[in-house]
Write a structure and sequence with these properties.
- With 377 residues, this protein is α/β, with parallel strands linked by helices.
- It starts with a helix and ends with a helix.
Length: 377
């Protein structure tokens, strides 16, 4: 039976490990599992390898993305770190040049130290120029964080296939509800489950979804060996969050569109970055490869003092890092998510003292607009 994605969100995967008929997935709070006999196993031996709660989560996320398997991690950055363990010293990766600051930090301070080189490309043609015999993968985030640029996934996938490269897509911003990277040629899909999948600003998690079972086996070996596995308690919270993913994404997008229109009318706003705007340079690509534009908005105000005033004056909206939760959050990328990026590189990407990033929550649009309006005074 082929089910709508909203139904999969609510009911999850078909795999069950409980015989009581519990509607909610149980939390299997066991570090270890007894063997029925010598050389025998129930399929679960130690929670660092597999845990029934997390297996339900992994299979649910794999079903939502259209992948073969998913592997859960203790945070989004733990997932990226495990991903980088697929590569060896001397390998080269090409990444889109607008990425979450934590990913930049990992590439710059950890991957580089470990001998994996990362170069950055601003456009499709730049990706081909960066390819060398050592190149093993292309890593993109679309829409990008925080400038909301959109990458043509099918075009990148064609280049990756031509050169036999892994194509990795961070799908945190739009989730499988609005965007399916595997349908456009991705090999690995990454999520910070902390964000929209969890959706309540109350737990950390990360997910890697793959099409290839060989890749899944490698990733499971990495998480078993390095230990960045997800707690079953946190796995339960992410499962619970996914149940409302569809309705949250629709409502957040609806509110975001209203806020965007209001921002466009304000004299204090220099520019609004949102893929759902027809004047956005990547609008047509967005319409072609996604079913929605999401709830993330970035905008530039007239000067740094105005940005600080907004951050200090908002009351309903919280000045905090992260995104994708039911509470609206406003972030100052220059000082928060991208603080570790060298100033010259931040400025080159437009991440300056004027840029703010807004994660739209579930509050009434009118209340959020009123809060923004009073924050400019």
């Amino acid at each position: 039976m082929c089910m709508d994605i909203s139904t999969i969100c609510v009911h999850g995967c078909k795999k069950k490990f409980d015989t009581t008929g519990a509607v909610a997935v149980p939390i299997f709070a066991s570090a270890t599992f007894a063997h029925p006999g010598v050389g025998q196993s129930t399929g679960f031996d130690y929670s660092r390898s597999l845990n029934p709660t997390n297996v339900h989560l992994e299979d649910t996320v794999a079903a939502l993305e259209g992948g073969s398997e998913a592997v859960a991690f203790s945070s989004g950055m733990a997932a990226v770190s495990a991903l980088m363990e697929l590569f060896s010293p001397g390998d080269h990766i090409i990444a889109s040049d607008d990425l979450y600051g934590g990913t930049f930090r990992l590439f710059l301070h950890i991957s580089q130290k470990n001998g994996v080189k990362v170069s950055y490309a601003a456009a499709l043609e730049d990706i081909e120029k960066e390819i060398t015999p050592a190149t093993k993968a292309v890593f993109i985030e679309t829409p990008s964080n925080p400038m909301m640029r959109v990458t043509d996934m099918a075009a990148v996938a064609a280049v990756a296939r031509k050169h036999k490269l892994l194509f990795i897509v961070d799908n945190t911003f739009l989730t499988p509800y609005f965007q399916k990277p595997f349908s456009h040629g991705a090999d690995i899909v990454l999520h910070s489950g902390t964000k929209y999948l969890g959706g309540h600003n109350d737990t950390l998690s990360g997910m890697l979804v793959v099409k290839d079972s060989v890749l899944a086996e490698k990733l499971r070996f990495i998480v078993k060996t390095t230990g960045a596995c997800l707690s079953p308690f946190d796995g339960f919270l992410i499962i619970r969050g996914i149940k409302t993913l569809a309705v949250r994404m629709e409502r957040m997008q609806e509110t975001a569109l209203k806020i965007v229109q209001w921002l466009l009318e304000q004299n204090a706003i220099k520019k609004v970055y949102y893929p759902g705007l027809k004047e956005h340079p990547d609008y047509e690509i967005s319409c072609r490869q996604t079913s929605g534009f999401g709830g993330m908005i970035s905008f530039s105000v007239r000067d740094g003092k105005t940005a600080e005033r907004v951050l200090e004056n908002v009351k309903v909206i919280k000045y905090a890092e992260s995104l994708g939760g039911v509470e609206s959050l406003i972030t100052y990328p220059m000082l928060q998510t991208h603080a570790d990026l060298p100033e010259s590189e931040r400025n080159a990407r437009g991440i300056n003292e004027c840029l703010l990033r807004l994660s739209v929550g579930l509050e009434a649009a009118e209340d959020l607009i009123a809060d923004l309006k009073q924050s400019f005074i």
